[in-house]
From TrEMBL:
Gene3D superfamilies: 3.40.190.80, Fructose-1,6-Bisphosphatase, subunit A, domain 1. The lineage of its organism: Eukaryota, Metazoa, Ecdysozoa, Arthropoda, Hexapoda. Belongs to the inositol monophosphatase superfamily. GO terms for molecular function: 3'-nucleotidase activity; inositol monophosphate phosphatase activity; metal ion binding. Keywords: Hydrolase, Magnesium, Membrane, Metal-binding, Transmembrane, Transmembrane helix. Its main location: membrane. This is inositol-phosphate phosphatase.
Length: 341
């Protein structure tokens, strides 16, 4: 008999078991350096569904607002000297979008163009049912869940893009937008049009909404690109575009960054060019959607835009959006766009 051997094995087994137990307990308790918050997860698919509902709730407020006194105020002037208006509809849409998302996902970091006025009816927003996928967007039901850390997510919302045109009755440019950025990268974008009501979305690396057409790449478009620019601050952009892309360039003015990006997404335009400063809530949703259809949005220096929560909300370098031939258009542009900075 060999008692010594058995004893040695038992001692070793006991020690190992104890050590494993210690590891399990340490891991379950979250360790010392990880407060439980940091491990909270969120499902991107649920966020996409919620973003669609939130954008559509905002859109309802925008439609309602049109039938009331608009109560137009000015937030001041843009750098180009254009009026920067805000209406009660901007606030009503902000309330609906911001607080319905916040109530549904309390730990979510949300950045909105507007801030709520002190108004309890604003805070009282119904929870969003993330199980209910609108019938036009049934394809989402067949997509996989994908969980990420809540701490890595920033949601950017624009409760009413193209407010100036809204006050002028040019409703076709008006959109509400929600964007989900993960570690500063735009991943999910939702652009909703209230007039007439329709919603487009894109989930980068996965899918775009079925109402977005497939577009054939046409190499010849580079010879006579259709370029969309801002109608409210055209600056010298039309001249810059013609100088860069050639005399056959066709320049069209439109309003709202959301609508202009959608014009590129649906193939009406080859390029969206913006020369002056612009805010990230105007860009994020369109950025995610253009990426979802394999297009690109960059500054005119070719840099990606960072949608992390703590950076500057303004992009000052100018914006280039295209579905095809992005590097070609970039190479034709001057390194800096002159004009007000
Ligand atoms: C494409 O988008 C533009 C908005 O930029 C819109 O005017 C046009 O009607 C859209 N076309 C289609 C076919 O959806």
């Amino acid at each position: 008999m060999n008692f010594g051997g058995t004893l040695r094995i038992n001692k070793f087994a006991c020690f190992t078991l104890g050590f494993i137990l210690f590891l399990i307990i340490y891991w379950r308790s979250g360790g010392v350096s990880y407060p439980s918050d940091k491990n909270d997860l969120i499902n991107i698919k649920s966020l996409l569904i919620a973003a669609i509902h939130a954008a559509e709730r905002g859109g309802k407020k925008v439609i309602e607002g049109k039938n009331h006194e608009l109560n137009i105020k000015s937030k001041g002037k843009t750098q180009e000297g254009a009026n920067d208006p805000v209406t009660d509809a901007d606030y009503a849409s902000h309330c609906a979008m911001y607080y319905s998302l916040k109530h549904t996902f309390p730990k979510l970091n949300i950045i909105s163009e507007e801030h709520s006025k002190d108004d309890s009816s604003c805070l009282n927003q119904e929870l969003i049912d993330i199980e209910s996928v609108p019938t036009e967007h049934k394809t989402i039901e067949y997509m996989n869940d994908e969980h990420v850390f809540v701490k890595d997510v920033t949601v950017w919302i624009d409760p009413l893009d193209a407010t100036q045109e809204y006050t002028e009755g040019l409703y076709q440019y008006v959109t509400t937008m929600v964007c989900v950025a993960i570690n500063g990268v735009p991943i999910v974008g939702v652009i909703h049009y209230p007039f007439p009501t329709r919603t487009y979305w894109g989930w980068y690396t996965k899918k775009a909404s079925s109402n977005i057409p497939a577009i054939q790449h046409n190499e010849e478009n580079k010879e006579h690109p259709r370029v969309v620019i801002s109608r409210s601050h055209p600056g010298k952009v039309a001249d810059i575009a013609k100088e860069a892309f050639g005399p056959k360039t066709v320049v069209t003015q439109a309003a709202g960054a959301g609508d202009k990006v959608m014009g590129v997404v649906n193939g009406s335009f080859d390029v969206y060019l913006h020369a002056t400063a612009i805010k990230k809530w105007d860009l994020c949703a369109g950025n995610a959607i253009i990426k979802a259809v394999d297009g690109k949005m960059t500054t005119i220096k070719g840099a990606d835009i960072d949608y992390s929560p703590n950076g500057n909300v303004k992009v000052a370098d100018g914006i280039l959006v295209s579905r095809f031939d992005h590097d070609y258009y970039l190479s034709k542009l001057p390194k800096t766009l002159t004009g007000p900075t």
